[in-house]
Amino acid sequence: MQDLWFALRLLRTRPGFTLAAVIPLAAAIACATAVLTLVDAVLYRPLGVKNPASLVAIYGYSRSKAAYLSDSWPEFRDVSALSGVVDSATAYVRITVNADLGGGSERLAAELVSGGYFGTVGVAPVLGRALGPEDDRPDAAPALLVSYRLWSSRFQRSRAALGATMRIGDAAFSIAGVMPEGYTGTLLDWGAAPQLWIPMAYLERLAPGFASIDYRNRADVRWAMMTARLKHGTAVQSAQAALDVLEAQRRTSNPAAYRDHRLVALPSEQARFFPAYRDAAVRFLSLLAAVSAAVLLIACFNLVNLLAARVAAREKETTTRLALGASRGRIFRQFLIESLVLTGCAVMLGLPPAIQVTRWLAGFPQFLSISLNLNLSPDSRALLWSAGASLLAGVLIGMACALRAGRTDLVSGLNNAQARAGGRWGIGVRDLLVAVQVACAMLVLISAVMLARSLRNLEGARPGYNTRDVLLATVDIGSTRRTPAEIGQFYRALLADLRLSGPAALISEALPANTRFTRQVTPQGSAAAVEAEGNVVSDGFFAVARMPIEAGREFTAGDDGQSLSVVILNHSAATLFWPGENAVGRSIRIAGEGAARVVAGVVADAQYHPLASSPIPYFFLPLGQSPRSQMTIYVHRARPLELAATIERAVHRLDRTAPVFGVRTLEEQVASGFAQVRLAALSTSAVGLLGTVLALVGVFAMTAWRVAQQRRDIAIRIALGADHGHVVAAFAAKGFAIGGAGALAGAAMAVWTSGFLRSSIRGVAPPDAAVFVGAAVLLLALVLAASVIPARRISGIDPAGLLRVQ
Question: Which of 125, 307, 453, 562 has the smallest C-beta neighbourhood within 10 Å, fewest atoms?
C-alpha cells in the first residue's frame, strides 16, 4: 500500500508526464475496446439459444456458381427424416407484414416458422407459451409471438398483452407469448430484426406471391432457411456425410434438379449470417482490428519510451535508495506499481469513451456492406477482456522498466548519475521502439489517405440521375388483397395527388438499390439468353429523375395492361443485344413472362448499385403492366423533407392501413452505400492522426532525453571548441535518421497492405506514387521538426557552469 501511495504522489507531482502517458493509452484502449465489441457482436456473442454447439445451419450449394442457396421444402422434409443424425429440424422464412394493433398499420419484420422451430432452436418465451406443431395447421386458431422490444414499446411490458389481437392482412392473430430480450433469430442479416413469429401455415395469406407456385413440392423452388439440431454426440462431419448420401439418392431420382446441387451443414457459429458474406465481413473486421491494434501498439511503445526515460532520469534517486538499504526487489516493485497505476488510470479513462465509439460505429448503416441486426450494447466479456489485456500490457511494460531500474550500478550511479549516455535503453531498444512507432504511423497514414481519396472519388462520381432535393418514401399495400388492376388504380390515384405538390414518380427499388431483380433476357434475333437486372417504374420517372432518354420515348400513362407490352433498356443492354443497331422497335423475351416486350426507348447508363464499378445490362418495366404492391415514391422539390407529412396524408386518403416507411432523401440513400468506405476512412484518419502525434512525441522525447543524458559530453565538446550548430545538427540528424528509417519501413509495409485494403473494402482505388510521396514528405518533415526542436536546447548549455557543477 505504501508503494501505491508513493506512486500516486509521484505521478501527481509530474502532471505533464502523467498526461502524456495516460491520455494516448486511454484513447487507444477506447478504440480497441469499441472494435472488440463490434467483432464480438458480429462473430462471437451468444445468440440466446440452448446448446448452440449441436445446432447446424443447412444451406444449398451450387457447384457451378460456387454460391450458397436457400433450401426447398422437399429438402426440409428429407432432412427432418434423417433420424440417425438429426434430432429435429425447422424451416423458416423472414418477410415484412403490415400489422395493425388498433392504432394504425405499421411495417414489421416477421419470421414464419415451422412447427418445430422453438423446440429445435431451444428458445422459450419469457411470457406465455411457444408455438408448436399444433399451431402450424390451416385450421388452427391464429397465434403469434412478439419480440421483447415490441412488447416493451407497445404494451409497456404488461401481461395484458397475452391474448391481445393483432390484425395482419385478413387474419386476426392472438398474441400467445413474448420472446426473450435481445433475441433476434439465428440469422443476424436477412433484413430487419424480426418482431413477430408466425406459424408457417399462414405463408400464402401473408405473402400472396407464394400462392401461385407449388413451393411445398417443387425441389427447384428454394426459399426457406433450415436449422437442425444434431443428436447428442453427433459431429458436423457425420451430418455432412448423411446429407451427401441423401443428395446422391435425390440426384438419382431427379437429375435435373440435383445435378448441380448439394446440401451443406455449417456449425451455428459459422452461419450467423449468410455464408457468402462471411469472408468479406471477416476481412473488414480484421482491417478495423488491425487499425486499433496499430494505435494500441503505438500507445504502448509511447508508454515504454516515457517510462524508460523516467527510469534513466531517476537513476540517481534509485542508487541513493539502494545505498540507504533498499532492496532491489523493493525498487522493482515500486516501478512495476507505477506502471500499473498509469495503465489502470488509462483503462478507467478509456472504457467510458469506448461505449460512445461503439455507438458511433452502430450509426453507420450497412458498414459491412450487408444489413445486420447487431446488439452493440456494452458487453461485460469485451470490457473485461480489454481491461485485462491492457493491464497485462502494463505489467509487461512495468516489468521491463523495473528490471532496468533494478540493475542500476550503485557505484557508477553515485559517482555520476548522468554519465551513461546510452546503454541498451539509450541507443538500441528505445530507438527501435521509436522507429516502430513511426512505421505504424506511416502505414496508417497512407491507408487513411488512400481511403479518403477513394471516398472523395465515390462522393464526387456522377450516378447518372439527380440526387439533390429528392425525397424517397416506400408504400406497401400488400396487406389487402388487390388485383393487378386495383394496384395500378391505387398508384395512379396516388401519383395524381402527389403531382399537385410537384414532380413525382414511382420506382420499385430506389437507385442505387441494395437488392437485385435479375432475369434471363433473350433478345430478338438471338437464341442465347443474357442475364440482366431490372426495375419497375411509373410513367414520367425518367423526367423526374433526370435520366436522359437516348432513343425512343419514356413510359406514359397509356402503357397499361391493355396496351402493347413495352420495355426501356439502358445503353449497355441495347449495345449488348444489338451492337451498332437501333434497339427501338425490337423485342426481348424476359424469363417468366409469356409475351415478348417491344423496346420503347433507350436510357443512358447509370449507377444501379452502391460502389458499382462498371455499367451493367439493365431494363425498366412500366408499373401499369407489371404492378407491384410495394413501391417507392420519388418526389423532387426544394426542402424535400417537408413533404413527408404530405405523402403520408396522400397515402392514407386512399388506404388507411397502408404503411409509409423508409422516408429518406436520395442523398442519404446514396451515402449509405459508401458507409463502409466512410467508416474505414474516418477510423483510419483518426488513428493516423493519433499515431502520427504519438510518433512525433516519441521522436521528440528520444532526442530530448539523449540531449539531457549527454549534457556533460556536450559541454566538454563545446568547451573544446565544437560549434553549437554542428552539435545540434548531429543530434537532430540522429532523431531524423531513426524516424526516417521507420517511415521507409512503414511505406514498404503499406505497399503490401494496400492490396489487403482493396480486397476488404469495395470501392477503394489503387494507390499511386503521389499518395506514398505525399505521406512520406509530410511525416518526415514533422519528424525533422520533432528532432530539431529539442536539439536546439544545446545552445542554452553553459559549458563552464555545467562542468563546475559536475
Answer: 562
For the chain, what is the total number of helices (H) and then of strands (E)? 25, 22
Q: How far is CA 721 from the centre of its chain?
A: 63
C-alpha cell at 423: 546503454
Apex 23 CA angle, 19 and 24, nearest 5: 120
Taking a C-beta distance cutoff of 8 angstroms, is the pair 491, 626 a contact?
Answer: no
C-alpha 536/C-alpha 578 separation (Å) is 23
Cα 694–Cα 699–Cα 705 angle in degrees, nearest 5: 120
- Give the model confidence (pLDDT) of 258-317 as tens digits: 778 889 999 988 888 888 778 777 888 888 888 888 788 888 888 887 777 777 667 777
Phi and psi (nearest 5°) for 375?
-100, 100
In this predicted structure, the answer to whether residue 334 has a pLDDT above a threshold of 60 is yes
178: phi > 0 → left, psi -120 to 50 → alpha, else beta; which? Answer: beta
CA angle centred on 535, ends 660 and 476, rounded to 5°:
20
Give the Å distances, CA to CA, from 169 to 573, 651, 765: 39, 17, 48
Query: What's the predicted TM-score (pTM) here?
Result: 0.75
Ranges of H-type helices in 53-93 = 73-80
Query: How far is the C-alpha of 226 from the C-alpha of 244, rounded, in Å?
Result: 16
- 638-660 b/e with 16+ CB inside 10 Å = b? eebeebeebbbebbeeebebbbb
pLDDT of the residue at 552? 96
For residues 666 and 606, is the Cβ–Cβ distance under 8 A? no
DSSP 201: G
Residue with the three cell numbers 548519475: 417
User: Do residues 76 and 88 touch, judged by C-beta distance below 8 A?
Assistant: no
Grid cell 408455438 — which residue? 131
| Dist. CA 584–CA 603, nearest whole Å | 11
- Is the bond leading into 512 cis (omega within 30 degrees of zero)? yes
Q: Say how far apart CA 780 and CA 742 lie, in whole Å.
A: 10
User: Mean pLDDT, to the nearest integer, of 437-458?
Assistant: 83
One-letter amino acid identity for 335? F
pLDDT digits (tens, 9 = 90+) for 559-574: 998 899 999 999 999 9
pLDDT in the model for residue 418: 46
Single-letter residue type at 772: F
Eight-class DSSP state of 136: S
What digits encode the pLDDT tens for the residues 395-415? 887 787 777 666 655 555 545
Answer yes or no: are the C-beta atoms of 113 and 187 closer than 8 Å: no
Which of 175, 744, 675, 213 shows the shortest CA–CA distance to 441? 744
Burial of 153 by CB count in 10 Å (0-12 exposed, 13-18 middle, 19+ buried)? exposed
Strands 618-622 and 530-537: parallel
Residues belonging to the chain: 806
CA neighbours closer than 13 Å in the CB half-sphere of residue 369: 21
Task: Please give the DSSP secondary-structure letter assigned to residue 704.
Answer: H
**Amino acid at residue number 77:** R
What is the gyration radius of the CA atoms in the chain, in angstroms?
34
- Helices 380-406, 275-313: axis angle to 10 degrees equals 30
**E strands in 77-154:** 86-100, 105-113, 127-128, 143-146
**Nearest residue to 487 via CA among 506, 500, 471:** 506
Instruction: Calculate ∠ Cα 267-271-277, nearest 5°.
Output: 140
For residue 46, what is its C-alpha cell?
Answer: 451468444
Distance of CA 429 to CAs 82, 96, 433, 739, Å?
63, 61, 6, 14
Q: How far is CA 301 from the centre of its chain?
A: 29
Query: Strands 55-62 and 67-69, how do they pair?
Result: antiparallel
Helix (H) or strand (E) segment spanning residue 746: helix 724-760
698-747 tens-digit pLDDT = 777 777 777 766 777 777 777 777 777 787 788 778 778 887 888 888 88
Q: Is the pLDDT of residue 254 over 50?
A: yes
Q: Which residues contact 565 (CB under 8 A, 6 or more apart)?
A: 593, 595, 596, 597, 598, 625
